[in-house]
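Hey, quick one: can you model this chain's 3D structure?
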Amino acid sequence: MLSSFTNAVRRVNPLQRVSPYFKTSSFIRSLFISIKETPNPDVQKFIPTPSMSILPPEFGHTMEFSNEKEARASPLASKLFEIPDIKSVLLGDTYICVTRNDGVEWEYLNPSVFHTVLDISYFFSTPDHQPVVLKPEEIPEDPNDIKEGDSEVICLIKELLNTRIRPRIKADGGDIFFNGFDVDKGEVQVRLTGACKGCSSSSVTLKQGVEQMMRHYIPEVKSVINVENDDTPEVRAAKEKAEKELQKDFEDELASAIADEMKKMKKSKNG
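Sure thing. Here's the predicted structure for all 271 residues.
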């Protein structure tokens, strides 16, 4: 995904004035927040400088929170969701992506986001040992990890995603996850998050970028499609099952109604 970035930098007071909980042997004078625009105008990328670890490595490359309930696992994301008109939050290793609701101006949101990001107590341990993300055992594993039992083709797909495709998409404030591979169709299913989710250029990225690269390196791949969280194979199967059950119920009720009507007509005729 190609984009041009514009930066906005804001200087704030020394860190010891931002949070009484900041403890480190290396004294940092000032903290800066860089804002990078992404290809999706509803998503902005906030990068603290000097660089500091936001999402611990044990939680993977990125973690997205789409609502307040999901954000309970992260004190930082939870605080960001207290800001009105925040639609989703994505935490990266050294950055944060914030998605706004439709019709909201960044000029209105940025001061509140700055204030929350600059609360250094959410980046470092507090006296209560409150980390950025809670309960690591409840966090799902990265779908892009190569697992025992993965076929050779799936291993190649995941390796290509992680080494060649994912870094480029992450640079624009998004992420891409392996969702499945249809052997018969040669179809790779992926899920886009962050700035790439809902972005008008995401289809171009998939077809002219991801799909071309996949087909070039892996002959078994014929196409790449994006599936939303509510459009996974499992969800589609459940929907199809529900539709079939509804259709059967309708047909049974129709047959019963026709039978009742025929009985009434026969009784009326005999009478």
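One thing worth noting: The first helix runs from residue 15 to 18.
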